[in-house]
C-alpha cells in the first residue's frame, strides 16, 4: 500500500474513528458514509474500525490522532505506525517479525491489517521495502511508541 492516496484514506478513516470515539458517538456509520463517498467497498469501514480497536487492545493505550486534515503532512506517531502496519501486513504472520515490525503481530491484528490492505485496494504480495523518506521510529523499534506529552487522545 505504498500509494499516497491509499495512505491518506487510511489516515482519514483513523482520524474519523478517533474523533467519533472522543465524542462518544458511533464511528462506524460515519466511516461507512466516508467509504461510500470514496467508492470503497462497505467492508473497508468495518475492517478499519476493527484494526484500530485491536491495535489499541494490543498496545494497552488509546491511539492518538493528529489534528486537522488527513491530507496534511503532519501525522501522529500512531498514524505513521498504522500506515506502516498495513503496508507490511501481507508479509507478516502471527509472531513473525520483519525489519519494520520486529516483534511480529498477534493473529487478530495481522488478519485485520491484511483485510484493511485488501479492502482499500492495495495489491497483495510481499511487504514493501522500507521507505527511507518516511519519518518515524527506527526499524528496530515497535512502531507504536508512546505519544509525545503534547499529543493526548481526544476526549479521553
Written description of the protein model:
The protein has five helices and no strands. The chain is mainly alpha-helical and 156 residues long. It has one domain (4-119). The longest helix is centred in the first third of the chain and has 19 residues, at 4-22.
Helix/strand structural class: mainly alpha
Largest sheet: none
What is the rounded distance between the termini?
31 Å
Question: What's the rounded overall pLDDT mean?
Answer: 74
What is the number of beta strands? Answer: 0
Show unreliable segments: 124-140
Q: Percent range for helical residues?
A: 40-55%
Domain count, please report it.
1
Rg for CA atoms? 14 Å
Q: Roughly what fraction of the amino acids lie in strands? A: under 5%
Order of helices and strands: HHHHH
Count of runs of 4 or more consecutive helical residues: 5
Give the overall silhouette. globular
What is the structure about, briefly put?
The protein has 156 residues and is mainly α.
Describe the secondary structure blueprint for this structure.
Blueprint: H1 4-22, H2 28-37, H3 43-59, H4 77-88, H5 107-119
Helix pairs in contact: 1-2, 1-3, 2-3, 3-5
Keywords:
mainly alpha; 156 residues
